[in-house]
User: Fold these one by one.
Assistant:
Number 1:
Amino acid sequence: MTHDSHGAVAIAPPVSSGKFAAYCRLAKLDIFDYYLSLAVAWSLLAAPLRADSTTLAVLALFGLGMLCLVAAMTTFDDVTGLRDGSDAANYGPDAPLRKIRRKPLLAGTLTEREAIRFGWATAAGCVLLWGAAVAVAPHAPWWAVATAALCLVTSVQYSYGVKLSYHGWQEIFMVALGLGLVVAPYGLLAGEVTGFALVQGTLFGLGPLLFGVYSNTNDRAGDAAVGRPTVAVLTTERGNKVFIGAVSAVESVLIAAATLTGQAPWWFPLAMLPVVALRVIQFVTGVVRGRILTARKLGTYTHRVSVVALVVTNVLLAAATGGGV
């Protein structure tokens, strides 16, 4: 165990796993949940019918750009986590369920300078790839282009530069990013955005939030020590539990409201019922029984189930109406 120039604790593994693997871990390539927004966007276009070369090219370019975006975001988050010591606190020896190898800067397999170069390179890659997606897309409404640009700028500034997550924007950012990553590619391909697309984008964004709030609960002490004001830090333990319950309930309310307002078919709540049931189990596991990291893992699984439910809903609705959603 050593200390870097910023005073953070670095825990070096006994054997280096190589630079390439370290960069892959820095980019968090194993966490693909935000990338699933493409499946939702595509299904909103009646996926079985929209397999032309232009559609596939836009989705491929936007998806590769998203890969770069997430890599830049997680890289700069790790740089800040190293500098302020929060990763050392949250991934240290007192947190055995956390894998230190997931933090290559903390593990000593990459230097801070290497990470910063990688972060800016992947951000530039996102600009080029999303620019290409806009160039080949059949539509380029200003709001879709602006949404994509806002996603990139705020992602880079999430923990670095302006540090949005250090100014109380973390929870809002998670939902907004998910929403943007659905409606931006959908707008490039459809040229418009429907009420149901906005509902699904919001539901998609709630997924990362509803496993993020459990991570924040687990990391409360470390975040408080470095001045990162998550809801878990700003409220009491009871207040944080109420917040988690409220956000969980918002998901169900949004599903019901979409149907009641005519944005979704009458059977939409039935299609999303497995998600609602899993969300209840997640709340009981994490909040009632106190198994925070187990609840976080269940939240990841629930998000993926939600994506499947949304895609199936869109495909069935497209088949019934003979067109897009």
Note: The chain has 15 helices and two strands.
Number 2:
Amino acid sequence: MKKVLVILAVVMMTTLQAQEIKQVAQISVNGVGEVKVVPDQATISATVETKGVNAKEVKKINDTQVEAVLKMIKKMNLAPTDYKTQRVALNPQYDYEKKKTSYNATQTLEIIVRDLSKYDELMDGLVSQGINKINNVEFQSSSLSKYESEARKLAMKDAKMKAEDYVSVLGQKVGRALTISDNSQNYRPQPVVYARMMKTEMSDMATPRETVAAGEIKITANVSVSFLLE
């Protein structure tokens, strides 16, 4: 009997504690922080694509074009760590109507341009030496971690300010944070104004041109915070 009474007492205490926890005055809000930055570098993904009926010949031509592209990149004094082969492929293409097989060879390079003033010169060189497909141009900041930290701090300040606005009419104060959740999406920021694709015609290569508007990138942080009310 005593054992039963002890169990009941423990259950009642646990229930009371749970009720007390539920009755704690608190407020939950979301906070957003945003930092706008002018990008200072770009990552280019570009491909040399070659087609033909002989697999060996197609691969040979593709390799020759890629070699010329790499030589051009080296002449621009890019750091060896700033460019690499991303993907190499040789695929058969079967034409069911003609009942013939052709081959498609591709090599994709990833190049980091840390000085955007070299962007146009590099693009012209890539196309003139054999690149025939620009897959993507992504503008970035070399100080991304720094700006992400700033965005997180701004998000927390925004959350606290919202909480203070809500409770200001109640005669209460915002106390310590009970829970903090980071809801920021894990993605790379994109430029507000994206790159305009360069012309493939090389007739005006001698004339300096600007073919990209880098704009700015937005780095955002989103948090959910629960504050204790005093």
Note: Helices lie at 2-22, 55-75, 119-129, 144-167.
